[in-house]
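Form P-L/3: holo structure prediction, ligand flavin-adenine dinucleotide.
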Amino acid sequence: MAEHKHKVVIIGGGISGLSAAYYLQKSINARRLPIEVQLIEASHRLGGKMQTVIRDGFIIERGPDSFLARKTSIINLAKEVGMEDKLVPNSTGKSFVLANEKLFSIPGGAMMGIPTEIGPFVTTGLISIPGKLRAAADLVLPRSESGKDQSLGEFFRRRLGDELVENLIEPLLSGIYAGDIDQLSLQATFPQFYEVEQKYRSLILGMKKTIPSQPKPKEMKEKKTGGFLTFKTGLQSFAEAIEAKLAHESILKGHRVEKIIRVNQKYEIYLNNGEMLIADSIIAATPHKVTQAMFSDYPFFEPFKSVPSTSVATVALAFPEEAIKQDIDGTGFVVSRNNDYSITACTWTHKKWIHSAPKGKALLRCYVGKAGDETIVDLSDDQIVKIVLEDLKKTMDITMNPDFFIVSRWKNSMPQYTVGHKQRLKKILEHMKTELPGVFLAGSSYGGVGMPDCIDQGEAAVQNALNYLKEAVQI
Ligand SMILES: Cc1cc2nc3c(=O)[nH]c(=O)nc-3n(C[C@H](O)[C@H](O)[C@H](O)COP(=O)(O)OP(=O)(O)OC[C@H]3O[C@@H](n4cnc5c(N)ncnc54)[C@H](O)[C@@H]3O)c2cc1C
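OUTPUT (holo model):
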């Protein structure tokens, strides 16, 4: 007689769900556990936001393009699925910020915009003299009230003043979350800055003490690669490599989960085609609003309804190299809000990621859409590209039309960890423990938005599911 197997259903085939499926299958195989895995994905492809277009020798990322090399979970997973040799580091170069309609190079020693070296800040034209004096007040200001969450804006404005925040810190930080720094939670996004303040009082002095020493100019010349990595075959190839390691029959694409209810210690999972699956444990690797809708019978998920997700679009533009007349020595720029620009950032991708464009070609990737200004994402491709080209003309003197462009819209895709995020999530997780035992969350809406953070969450959810099954059904 066939052995009875317990079923773990993973919902959502982005990097969070994929990594959960990979590590769960690995544990099952290694320990011969009587568990069956089912990964359910609404669309017809796995990878979620990791999407690559390969065209005319260009490798174009529609969504994420790279990750921090010091976050090792993604490198470990790359090794597991045989993709380690496809990892490439970024080429380094100057980064710029567009403020008051001009490009300024980001002052040396700025850590996420926080000055750690005096010289470059004294000489930069990016901040006025009163702005610099206000930032220096950080050296004498007291600590924040201990333990209380606050917005990134409140924290940085208090310590360093509005001008440094608006011209440098906001464009750098909001690039990661496409968010409003006056709404985003310090504790949930950058707790390290709060910790530095609590320990050293001054952010400037504390950051100086905590960062590793910067390479000297000579070392910098020798070290031409930076702290980011990507896959030279595109991030989608990483998703495909993970998929190739999963048992074919464990993957169900093109099926959307609509509702989940707990019945007799198990879970009934209703799909959009009317089918119903029974699971012993669930890993929901879905965005928070989807999770809330799937568990609509459980009112404790309601707070997810009011957590915003910002819409953005990426616009990749392929040019012949000669189209860029004012070739700036650098890898890109971010845009402060005090400009009449629609783009929020532009990466000179062919310089940052040499493999991304064929010889003689240039690839620029611009972002549009930010918290409070997302309507541009709803325009047509041609309208968006026209606006982007007008902005680029002003900064880089580009007058030619691109050979081709790719606009990728990410509607309601950037979850905003607003003030109180950690406490809100903690309450929901506490309810889940008692009312939905065996259900776990993973993904960018919960414990970190970077791909490595999503992998960490996928792995942790697998461990939680295995511990649960050990207790509940003695696997
Ligand atoms: C434009 C952009 C640029 C970014 N840049 C970077 C970057 O450079 N580096 C970085 O580390 N991160 C970056 N990020 C963030 C990162 O891409 C995401 O946080 C991460 O990919 C999210 O993975 P996930 O698996 O949690 O969610 P997703 O990738 O969103 O996957 C969720 C999956 O769930 C599926 N799904 C939804 N509802 C259902 C349902 N009811 N039933 C079944 N399946 C369902 C979806 O179809 C989707 O495939 C970027 C994000 C965007 C949008």
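COMMENT: The mean pLDDT is 94.
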